[in-house]
Amino acid sequence: MGYSSSPVAYKNKIVVQVGGAGHSLIAFDRAEGSVVWKAHNFRNSSSSPILIKVDGQEQLVAFMHAEVVGVDPESGKLFWAHPVAAGWNFHFSISTPVWGEGNLLFVSAAYGVGGGGFFTLAKPTEKPQ
After folding, report:
1. What gap in Å lies between CA 69 and CA 114, rounded to an integer?
2. Which residues span the domain enclosing 32?
3. Residue 95's pLDDT is what?
4. Of 27, 49, 45, 48, which is closest to residue 36 (Cα–Cα)?
5. 73 and which of 10, 44, 83, 108 could share a cystine (Cβ 3.0–4.6 Å)?
């Protein structure tokens, strides 16, 4: 099975959601193509990541296989993660997260999840993990 997420441009980087141990998300230098950072152990999905601002803080949101996560797009460090698990063994996290007014994030998965979830986000008070 292949995945079809789209990359996202952030400053001098292109961030790609690829899944897998140690490289769930990878940022490449736009000019050189070299790896700037790679991080995390989340399984992949076909959803495309988005860039948001939470109380003025830039975050990259990625809807992975069983969770939606927010990371620092500059370094890849994890700000937060929320589980969004399907009720069935096979499920697909395909839709792109939707960011709205009032720091509201919506994600939707198929096959046993239905709506997925609404999350109200706040800027982390601690430094990224």
Report:
1. 19
2. 8-120
3. 74
4. 27
5. 10
Q: How far apart are CA 75 and CA 37, in angstroms?
A: 6
Q: Do 73 and 58 form a contact (C-beta atoms < 8 A)? A: yes
Laid out side by side, the sheet with 78-83 consists of 50-54, 57-63, 67-71, 78-83
Q: Which of 27-41, 70-84, 108-122 has the lowest mean pLDDT?
A: 108-122
* Number of domains the chain contains: 1
Determine, yes or no, domain membership for 13. yes
The answer to the question of residue 2 being in a domain is: no
Distance CA 30, CA 10 (A): 9
Contacts of 3 (CB under 8 A, 6+ apart): 17, 18, 19, 44, 45, 46
Q: Nearest CA to 18 among 30, 31, 5?
A: 5
CATH number at residue 93: 2.40.128.630
Q: How big is the chain, counted in residues?
A: 129
Residue 15 lies in a domain: yes
